[in-house]
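User: As part of a screening pipeline, I want to sanity-check one entry by hand. Below is the sequence and the SMILES for 2-acetamido-2-deoxy-beta-D-glucopyranose. Please return the complex as structure tokens so I can compare it with the automated output.
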Amino acid sequence: MITRAPIAVIIFCAVIIQAVDKSNFKTCSQSGFCKRQRDHKPAESQYRALLDAVEIGPSAIKVHLVNKQNSAKLLLEVFALQDNTVRVKINDLEPNKLRYEIPVGDVLVQEPQQASLQVHSKDSSHMKLKVQDNTVILYASPFHMDFLSSDTPVMSLNSQGLLKYEQYRSKSKNEAAEDKPVDGVDENPGEEQEKEEENTAEEPDMWEETFKTHQDSKPYGPSSVGMDISFPGFEFVYGIPEHADDLALKSTKDTDPYRLYNLDVFEYELNNPMALYGSVPYMIAHNEEKSVGVFWQNAAETWIDIRSNTADRGMFSKLVDFVKGDDKIPQVDTHWFSESGIIDMFIMLGPQPKDVFRQYGLLTGTTPLPPLFALAYHQCRWNYNDEHDVASVDAGFDEHDIPVDVIWLDIEHTDGRRYFTWDAHKFPHSDEMIRNVSAKGRKMVTIVDPHIKKDSNYFICQQFQDRDLFIKNKDDSIYDGWCWPGSSYYPDFTDPKVREFWASKFHTDEYKGSTNDLHIWNDMNEPSVFNGPEVTMHKDAKHMNGWEHRDVHNVYGLYVHRATYEGIKLRGGNNHRPFVLSRAFYAGSQRYGAVWTGDNKADWTHLKISMPMLLTLNLVGLTQSGADVGGFFTNPEPELLTRWYQAASYQPFFRAHAHLDTRRREPWLQPPDHKQVTREAIRTRYRLLPYWYTVFQENEATGMPVMRPLWVEFPKEKETFRIEDTFMIGSSLLVRPVTDAGMTSVSVYLPGQDQVWYDRDTWQMKNGGQQVLVNVNLQKAKNMLSSQIPVFQRGGSIIPQKTRIRRSSILMADDPYTLIVALDKKNALSSFSWKTDFLSFISKRQQGHAKGDLYEDDYYSFRYKNGQYIKRRFTFANSKLSSSDIHSGGISMKSNAWIERVIVVGYAQHPSSVGLSTGSKQSDLSFDYDSERRVLTIRKPGININEDFTITVQ
Ligand SMILES: *[C@@H]1O[C@H](CO)[C@@H](O)[C@H](O)[C@H]1NC(C)=O
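Assistant: Here is the complex for your manual check:
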């Protein structure tokens, strides 16, 4: 939720600001280190690797790097890690002051497992290392490194010579004397001065920096680190959220670099590299042959420049700096720099998309399987006013026969924005209210933000202050910032003691008026500070062990999210899966639950951008992500709201939300035709929940994203590399939302030359490798077939779904399944009508194949971790559908759900009989065959989902 204009604007002018006030946020040229790093020229500091004195261990090497100009020394460490991954760390050799490193276990799940490293060859000019199937070549002078994946160069470090390391140092006399603004760069630095230290050329903002009215005291001076990373052979790079921008990252030659600095941006602008609420410094490069990834583990403000010799071609007149080499081979060059910390890179060498997802998942973790309700529909607004309002919204869904799983309360539910409390007039019986809602299997969520109202009568403030758990100013007084409650303190979530204490506050004994069916939403955790620089915390504020806010800024939100997650987990005796939504995030936030794209707007452009934004989040592990349905700010017209529901019903986190100043927009308030379509969109989500749940389980196990760009499934098909209006859910569903007004048809690209696709509304089959036009006319809402958005099931897949829609997802737990078996391309060749037995036999053989999985458990507890789940694989081949147990330890949970129907689409000829065989019985099944649509419907197999079976079509 929520940001607002600077507080002064709210107080002094009752004007609604219409768009982002860009002047609140720094451009690169207003940021000292960004300017210094971006303007850095390779010749200014070349490094040499001292290969004669390399230390070689079984899985790592250590080498000193010496700056040729000033003899400053760095330590380079290269670690071979399991699963085609290499870590490259560059730190001070003899630091004046330790540099911040994120503790292992906080972003990295654990100390990464090392693998063996062989020195293939070595002399004083270079050294060749073997790591599994990959080669790493380290060149001594100038220092740079190449990475080859089975002999193909895929990445290089410092090949442009942009390594720049600002070492901590004491303020020199010279600088102390000149402690006032100096004009620009030092003119004419003398010979001796140049030899002294790389950083001697001082700039006015090295020892303090002013932005608007805010001063950053920079007590330790300049400390930034930067380096270039090139991707030879690649044209496309992805990742580094959060930006309101395209899926395929763009050249930043004519803009600022992409910025990563968690910020609360009021009405953000689209298609630019400005920072938003979260930061994941992780980039994936992909081409037809290979995928590789690089994770830059640094929690400070970071900027990334991108150049591409293909995208930047044709602009040669302006083309400067760092693209070099043969431009017949595509290459993307990137330049990364952070304000403090060390250089710590994880290079994931794929070679395929699925490998890169697994490799990144091994490092930073995957999303623990969410409770089923988290994947269902969420209804939120700032604010549901009181208990009666909640009761009537809850009842409204039942009256209009629309399912919902979670009702949310924003900041106004509290006593004066004191989190963990309730407004006594509006919510006098909050626990009863929650129980009333949860009696229908539903849940509630309240907002709990990390700013704590400064109020000695507020127990949370008091307890945290007594224990000395708040962030400090540089003079050790408590940091005091303005946020929703007015003057507020901020717990230091980087400290494990703070997280533990915070977590204990969620117990129902502490959080009075709550129940175990209440889950949590952490907003404003960038952190947002209305009167702070760029609406966030001062960089010289102090955290645990004296670390500056500068060092930890981008990881603060993850720590808030984590502490809350641990609190809810603890509250449920470590056995109930928590649901916690966070606005700020960092790499690893996926382990604590959901994120969303913050304060978007009721505008078609915002609906459209939600697709690339969520695809990018999914690529970097944040798979449980969504955008506010309808747009947070302003009022959507009915068509926009309806299209938004249709799109979001196919996005991983599905929540409607709206600003305080907007009109009410619960789904049944739509005009009748639109209401009908909206209702259908939400119900379709519930129909497909078994599939969503199965795909989320796959994500936890393998790191494969839930919402996937087409190229993840069709990695060799270059046509897909830029597509962001169409995506996959899992490997089996292709979705193309409608994101423009007045559309009656849209064109959809169906990938895969040897692939067929089935329209989920009509079961009409289409060949892959082409654009198809699909009717999406909303005006014909009564004819549901033409009011849907294009969704196709991939030939060769089997999707489990449920057809009886109830009030909430958990009420459907024991309901029977329908399997949709979509046959692959082989079938298209097989419309034989010859009547001999032999040919009929052959044609059966050619009826096509399909397979798919189903995962099921109790939908709410952690018992699945002990094997309490069901996992089945359905296979259709040779006209036989069979189900087998693929639980790693054999069946270990009993389900009440059974299979009530099997629909085989793309089945080419009328069967004469359908028989079922299980371990205990054989029987005939009744069926229908629609020869025009080629759909075979097999009725009432009546098999419990636990049972092995074979259905044979004759
Ligand atoms: C809970 O439901 C009961 C029965 O409908 C109703 O009388 C009561 O007012 C509800 N309580 C709240 C707090 O909504």
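Points to compare against the pipeline: The first helix runs from residue 7 to 12. DSSP finds 17 helices and 51 strands in the chain.
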